[in-house]
Design goal:
The complex is a heterodimer of chains A (about 140) and B (about 70).
Chain A: H1 5-29, H2 34-67, H3 77-94, H4 99-133
Chain B: H1 3-39, H2 44-73
The chains are: A mainly alpha (about 140), B mainly alpha (about 70).
């Protein structure tokens, strides 16, 4: 998984916009399913904000470990949990969207992150095996 | 106890067990990441991106369980 964190965040942002565009199209074309598409969009936005927060925390801990210093701060799980709850509250209580769709939207970006990591890992392995064969 | 009280207890158990698993998982991931970075600082980018993927997945479940617990317990 030889991908830099900023590159992965850029890809995540691109995929989030793809999900949002699908949600907007569904929101406009199928009015009966508005609660589902709307909840999914709110969940995806919450998931993206949580991913950015996690990347900031992980890179900070990496910096501290590389510098050999100790950190007294945590990983910010409560902040991300609060972002998830806020997204769900805005979606369900404020805008009357579907809760399950919001939860699916929050869960979508970690799954996309896993897929991106697996793909980049496979690409790296293929490149390394081609190098070993002397093709590159 | 009435049915609402059972709901609150269930919500607490759902989030508590989810957070317990996430705490153990995050601890394992970050202990190995910090160990790897301190051994080979030049692999910092690779190790942090791997930790990001792992922690993102580990934390997704307790966040979902917290959201569902809040909504169902209300």
């Amino acid at each position: 998984m030889n991908v830099d964190l900023p590159a992965m965040l850029r890809r995540l942002t691109r995929i989030t916009f793809f999900f949002l565009s699908i949600g907007c199209i569904g929101f406009a074309v199928w009015p009966d399913y508005k609660p589902y598409f709307g909840g999914f969009m709110i969940g995806v936005i919450g998931g993206l904000i949580g991913s950015f927060h996690l990347a900031w925390k992980v890179s900070r801990i990496g910096d501290l470990a590389a510098a050999g210093r100790k950190s007294r701060s945590g990983l910010g799980f409560l902040s991300r949990a609060a972002i998830g709850v806020l997204a769900a509250l805005v979606s369900v209580e404020g805008l009357h969207f579907n809760l399950a769709a919001t939860a699916a939207g929050i869960l979508a970006l970690p799954l996309v992150t896993l897929l991106l990591g697996l793909l980049s890992s496979r690409r790296l392995r293929e490149r390394q095996s081609a190098d070993e064969r002397g093709e590159k | 106890m009435d049915l609402n009280t059972y709901g609150y207890v269930a919500a607490g158990i759902v989030f508590g067990l989810g957070a317990l698993g996430a705490g153990i998982g995050n601890g394992l991931i970050f202990s190995k990441t910090v160990e790897g970075i301190s051994r080979q600082p030049e692999l910092r980018g690779t190790l942090t991106s791997t930790a990001f993927i792992g922690v993102g997945l580990v934390e997704a479940m307790p966040i979902i369980s917290l959201v569902l617990a809040f909504m169902w317990a209300k």
